[in-house]
UniProtKB/TrEMBL annotation:
Organism: Ameyamaea chiangmaiensis
Lineage: Bacteria, Pseudomonadati, Pseudomonadota, Alphaproteobacteria, Acetobacterales
Keyword Signal: yes
Signal peptide boundaries: 1-23
Keyword line: Secreted, Signal
SUPFAM superfamilies registered for this protein in UniProt: Calcium-dependent phosphotriesterase
One Gene Ontology cellular component annotation held by this UniProt entry: extracellular region
Name recorded for this polypeptide: SMP-30/gluconolactonase/LRE family protein
Main subcellular location: secreted
Length: 405
């Protein structure tokens, strides 16, 4: 297996080793045996595709990722699982994590929650090249204070925050877990934010925010598309994990991944503890005059997509999903078939995902190893990786059939 050094760093600036992992070619032992013996041979679990470790982090685990056209990279380090004292939003710069947009906003302080970043989770880039993030407002072991949960827009050209919309009750619940977001600039005077609230409890929903007025509402809170599937089971690192909110061995997961079509006409979303993909016309979702009954009728079941955390789309309209059962990233083609872009046992708990014209970027936060899901023992092992997968390798990846509906 070939390896190539790329770049690595610790959250405090310590340079770490980085590696390039490439799939090896595996002979099929079954072809070397008589047919009667072939079915008894382990064909192995060979990796597929090629990936690079862009950076390795010590300290808190990464979540959201955005890469600008000029290759500036931004990473979120939420505090809801680990109340750390490092940057919650950082830029990878000269081999170090630099608090972004500055230390006053990104590091812990006594400033009011609305005037600093508490726990940056998901993030995205809009069609104007601006950075948007969702601050879930949650520190481990603490309730969400007033002003902490918010949608924040940053202009990378000036490194200045130009928009802050604080999420308030009844949109924000005590158990809310504002997870990820996408920005639709085709609806509303300044655009509309669509946010997934996966919930730290059992109250997930989608949240819609008019960025010009700050008007906001929860929708589809009682719809199956935003909820975890009862009795859902996933196999992660060989362990069968069953969703049970009363006895968690698996993360509580309502609406989680979200992405937009290239023309911003369609929003796609999925619950973490579900294998289904759903969509809605943005024209419908952004319309505050439509009630939940109308929205529910507009929800489209797009079929199975595997167990996914992050979602992303490219400019061709192809949809990318992480898959934490298979340590993989899949791509849903325009005809509904799926392609394995990369698969490797080192791609553990793929989380935040971002697609540009050349690469798929993904953070690996090892969330399944958190103490909450392992009898109180934190099983995570530093460092945490940020990887990228070259899209040129997609042609050699393995294709599968269309999703079932």
């Amino acid at each position: 297996m070939k390896r190539r050094l790329l770049m690595g760093l610790g959250l405090g600036g310590t340079i770490a080793a980085a590696a390039r992992a490439k799939a090896a070619t595996h002979a099929d032992p079954a072809t070397e045996l008589p047919p009667s013996q072939g079915v008894t041979i382990d064909r192995g679990y060979g990796p597929i595709g090629d990936f690079e470790v862009v950076a390795r982090f010590t300290g808190p685990g990464p979540s959201g990722i955005v890469v600008l056209p000029d290759q500036r990279m931004f990473v979120g380090f939420p505090r809801h699982a680990n109340d750390h004292d490092g940057a919650t939003l950082g830029e990878l710069k000269d081999g170090r994590i630099v608090p972004y947009p500055d230390a006053a906003w990104s590091l812990p302080s006594d400033r009011a929650p609305a005037q600093r970043l508490i726990s940056v989770h998901g993030m995205t880039m809009d069609r104007r090249g601006r950075l948007w993030l969702i601050d879930d407002g949650k520190r481990a072991g603490h309730p969400i204070p007033e002003g902490a949960a918010k949608v924040v827009g940053i202009d990378p050209a000036t490194n200045a925050i130009f928009k802050t919309v604080v999420l308030k009750a009844p949109v924000l619940l005590p158990d809310s877990h504002m997870n990820d977001l996408r920005i639709d600039l085709t609806h509303g005077a300044e655009g509309t934010a669509f946010v997934t609230d996966s919930s730290f409890g059992t109250s997930p929903a989608l949240v819609v925010v008019d960025l010009a007025t700050g008007r906001q509402r929860r929708v589809l809170a009682d719809h199956p598309s935003t909820h975890a599937e009862p009795g859902f089971m996933a196999v992660v690192e060989g362990r069968p994990l069953v969703y049970d909110p009363k006895h968690p061995t698996f993360i509580v997961g309502g609406a989680d991944g979200i992405t937009l079509s290239p023309d911003s006409r369609t929003v796609y979303y999925s619950a973490l503890t579900s294998r289904r993909l759903y969509s809605l016309p943005t024209e419908t979702l952004a319309n505050f005059a439509l009630d939940d009954g109308v929205l529910a009728k507009a929800v489209r079941d797009e079929g199975e997509k595997g167990v996914a955390d992050g979602l992303a789309t490219d400019d061709q309209g192809r949809l990318y999903t992480t898959n934490f059962e298979h340590d993989a990233i899949f791509r849903r083609e325009l005809d509904g078939t799926f392609t394995t872009i990369v698969r490797d046992p080192r791609i553990l708990s793929p989380d935040g995902i971002f697609v540009d014209g050349r690469y798929v970027y993904c953070t690996l936060g090892q969330w399944n190893r958190l103490a909450t899901f392992n009898g109180g023992k934190d099983m995570r092992v530093e460092p945490y990786d940020l990887i990228r997968v070259p899209l040129t390798d997609a042609a050699t990846a393995t294709a599968y059939g269309p999703a079932s509906k």
